[in-house]
Write a structure and sequence with these properties.
Blueprint: H1 2-28, H2 34-42, H3 52-57, H4 63-78, H5 86-105, H6 110-117, H7 120-127
Helix pairs in contact: 1-2, 1-4, 2-4, 4-5, 5-6
Length: 130
């Protein structure tokens, strides 16, 4: 039993480190918008593959993927919107963060909250640069 607990803790710590490294890497990318890079990685996917956000809605995202989603949304909450109102950006990103955290914690309504929060058109209409 101790072996499984140790493995679980190791996986969680590794996921947190990977998520932090991902966000640090996104923020350090010269001339690149970290929000745009995060969206490419977690809201888009190669043809024939589900993006992480869809896997999260379907309950198929791994713990590591959920950790990285939460880290990405935290970074977005503190970022300036590429376009549009700061208050609207804050409201939308905080809703995404709270929903991703609900998924990560295993909340029974987490998938429904996340599905509602991942409203691409609402956010893109207000904040995606032309």
């Amino acid at each position: 039993m101790k072996k499984y607990i140790t493995i679980g803790i190791t996986v969680c710590v590794a996921s947190m480190i990977a998520g932090g490294a991902l966000i640090s890497g996104l923020n350090a990318a010269e001339g690149k918008d970290p929000t745009k890079e995060f969206m490419k990685l977690y809201h888009k996917a190669p043809k024939g593959t589900d993006p992480v956000c869809k896997k999260a809605v379907d309950g198929k995202a791994s713990k590591a993927e959920l950790t990285q989603l939460v880290a990405g949304y935290k970074a977005m909450c503190s970022a300036k919107p590429p376009k549009g109102d700061d208050a609207s950006w804050k409201e939308k990103t905080e809703k995404l963060l709270a929903a991703a955290q609900a998924l990560q914690s295993g909340a029974p309504d987490g998938a429904a909250k996340y599905k509602e929060a991942v409203n691409c058109k609402a956010c893109h209409s207000a904040h995606k640069p032309d």
